[in-house]
Write a sequence for this structure.
């Protein structure tokens, strides 16, 4: 998967990669040539006292050094630019895939792990690409070229190369094999700590309301300790690696000086050749060491690539049809025909045999006890989930045959949990209609009973909204979400318990304004408060995922025991009368 991802996302940057290869090649050849020039100065210049030779060779050596440095800098520049571009494209690919997921797909992975896979995991792959482009050419050429050049200097010392390099490879290889499972475990622990931290930040008000700070601190401490333990095990292996590499390098240097010194003493080898051989051996070992650094990054990057690939390879459970149908009319007629629905892994369906029709100019209300399936019923129309049986029709066409953009054009939903994005009020209101004018925004706010508090703000529509809308009250958040739906001017409005945070007076004014605005649209309301739905054209009473009664408020008061129980729990006898 790692190679597949790198090939897929690096293909557009092949010119940069070719430039990196050529620059690294030139830099490595220049680096290999420098010790040989140094040996010539020592053996042919210094030993004979030939100053002209020293100046000429030294000038060439200086020029080669400049070439080596210049090409190395250019290679790192283009390599970094390519790696950053690959990381950017990979993050974009993960983000686009996640945004195409249905609610079912997101729940299958979980939000914390999707965040980690789109950030930390992508960064690990990006760093491997960066290191690979900087060392994938120079490391093998330096290693092979260093061996050839060392043998040219003195073949009798070659056994030092054949001993030191395999020892280094074996030691580092053993450590890398031990690191593989630890890196996978580390990514899982990062997912865990991300999940705990995300829950605590989102639910901070609940934590404080129930004085659960000590417990949540302990829970986070446990997740943090698990990550710390894995990190310590990885750190222990790294601590072992660097002394081992250093010991091999120093022992190799000592061996070259010992055995090479004896050959110099007998006249079988010149001092310059010994110096060059030592430099070549160090270049070989350093190249092997850099290769091992790459090898250390590969296990973690491979684990991260597998996790990224799991996201990219998932086929969204809900996707647009190959040949979408566009309804001939734009009315907003909604029809449920024997609809059934069950969540993945659930033993029993949430909805069973749901049938009703909602028409333009009418308000359909859905009420029932907690867990009766009201929100699930509403979520099927905009295809947040796909039905298990039956059919949901919009203007006579099954929603499964409609393009999602077409559904969004006709249907606007205010979810049970109102959510605002970080930005300004106008940015949030234009979320469904980017070209909406300021007049349209103020008009929607007026209907949603949010105009007053927005005008009270110094910057009005340009006032900042925090992530999730945490800097406004629950009622203000609901009204802004309702205004956002009104701006799009759809043919079907879905309100999922969208008035629960409003006081009775504001609720009444809002319903009166909505009735006028949605006179020619279909309105479906999920409500807990009876006063919100008393004027609905039809009320559906849900119980255990089934419609047990339907009718107007007055009809249900006379015929529906379930509805009567709900009303009695909220209204006094005088209010019922």
């Amino acid at each position: 998967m790692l190679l597949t991802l790198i090939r897929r996302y690096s293909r557009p940057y092949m010119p940069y990669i070719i430039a990196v290869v050529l620059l690294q090649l030139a830099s490595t050849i220049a680096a290999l040539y420098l010790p040989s020039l140094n040996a010539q100065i020592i053996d042919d210049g210094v030993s004979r006292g030939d100053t002209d030779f020293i100046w000429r060779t030294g000038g060439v050596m200086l020029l080669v050094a400049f070439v080596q440095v210049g090409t190395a800098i250019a290679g790192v520049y283009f390599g970094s630019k390519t790696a950053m571009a690959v990381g950017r494209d990979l993050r974009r690919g993960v983000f686009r895939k996640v945004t195409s997921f249905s609610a079912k797909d997101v729940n299958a992975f979980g939000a914390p792990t999707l965040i980690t896979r789109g950030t930390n995991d992508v960064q690990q792959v990006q760093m491997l690409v960066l290191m690979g482009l900087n060392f994938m050419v120079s490391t093998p050429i330096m290693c092979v070229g260093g061996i050839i050049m060392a043998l040219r200097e003195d073949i009798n010392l070659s056994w030092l190369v054949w001993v030191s390099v395999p020892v280094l490879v074996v030691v580092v290889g053993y450590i890398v094999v031990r690191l593989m499972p630890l890196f996978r475990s580390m990514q899982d622990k990062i997912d865990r700590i991300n999940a705990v931290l995300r829950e605590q930040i989102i639910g901070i008000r609940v934590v404080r309301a129930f004085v659960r700070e000590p417990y949540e601190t302990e829970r986070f401490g446990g997740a943090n300790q698990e990550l710390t333990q894995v990190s310590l095990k990885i750190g222990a292996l790294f601590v072992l690696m660097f002394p081992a590499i250093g010991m091999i390098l120093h022992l190799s240097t000592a061996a070259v000086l010992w055995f090479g010194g004896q050959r110099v003493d007998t006249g079988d080898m010149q001092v310059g050749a010994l110096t060059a051989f030592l430099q070549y051996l160090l270049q070989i070992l350093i190249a092997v060491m850099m290769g091992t650094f790459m090898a250390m990054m590969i296990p973690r990057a491979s684990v991260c690539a597998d996790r990224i690939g799991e996201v990219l390879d998932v086929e969204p459970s809900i996707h647009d049809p190959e040949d979408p149908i566009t309804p001939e009319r734009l009315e907003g007629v909604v029809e449920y025909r024997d609809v059934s629905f069950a969540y993945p892994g659930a033993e029993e369906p949430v909805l069973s045999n749901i049938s009703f029709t909602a028409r333009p100019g009418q308000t359909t209300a859905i009420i029932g006890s907690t867990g009766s399936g009201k929100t699930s019923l509403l979520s099927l129309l905009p295809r947040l989930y796909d039905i298990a049986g039956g059919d949901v029709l919009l203007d006579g066409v099954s929603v499964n045959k409609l393009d999602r953009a077409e559904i969004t054009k006709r249907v606007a939903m205010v979810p049970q949990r109102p959510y605002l994005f970080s930005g300004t009020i106008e940015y949030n209101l234009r979320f469904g209609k980017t070209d909406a004018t300021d007049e349209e925004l103020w008009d929607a706010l007026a209907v949603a009973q949010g105009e007053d508090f927005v005008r009270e703000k110094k910057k009005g529509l340009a006032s900042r909204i925090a992530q999730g809308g945490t800097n406004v009250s629950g009622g203000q958040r609901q009204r802004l979400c309702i205004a956002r739906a009104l701006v799009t001017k759809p043919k079907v409005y879905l309100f999922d318990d969208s008035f629960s945070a409003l006081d009775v007076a504001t609720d009444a004014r809002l319903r009166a304004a909505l009735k006028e605005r949605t006179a020619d649209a279909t309105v479906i309301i999920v409500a807990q408060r009876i006063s919100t739905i008393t004027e609905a054209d039809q009320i559906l009473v849900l119980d255990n995922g089934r419609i047990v009664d339907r009718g107007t408020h007055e009809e249900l008061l006379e015929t529906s025991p379930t509805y009567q129980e709900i009303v009695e729990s909220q209204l006094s006898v005088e209010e019922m009368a």
The longest strand covers residues 334-341. The mean pLDDT is 83.
